[in-house]
Design goal:
Length: about 90
């Protein structure tokens, strides 16, 4: 997955500038981002504080780790069932 040039703190700072009254077009030009990126950030981080964004990132990482573990366990179970089903 591509890493962002901006940290959660920077993204929330941009969104706070928008809440302070700057237009989306001005912010996009100032920070060198596209309109789509700005609106994606707003939908994901809108109304959050920095500590909430960090916690969200931690939960997303933990969720990805748990999904990988579950997939590995399901593969192990499928392999064992296949091995038990065969007659030697």
């Amino acid at each position: 997955m591509k890493r962002s040039r901006f940290t959660e703190e920077q993204i929330i700072g941009v969104l706070k500038e928008h809440q302070a009254g700057l237009s989306a077009a001005e912010l996009c030009r100032k920070h060198g981002i596209s309109d789509a990126t700005f609106y994606n950030w707003r939908s994901k981080y809108g109304g959050m504080e920095v500590n909430e964004a960090k916690r969200l990132k931690q939960l997303e990482d933990e969720n990805a780790k748990l999904k990988r573990l579950l997939a590995e366990q399901m593969m192990d179970v499928a392999t064992l069932r296949e091995m038990l089903g065969k007659n030697f």
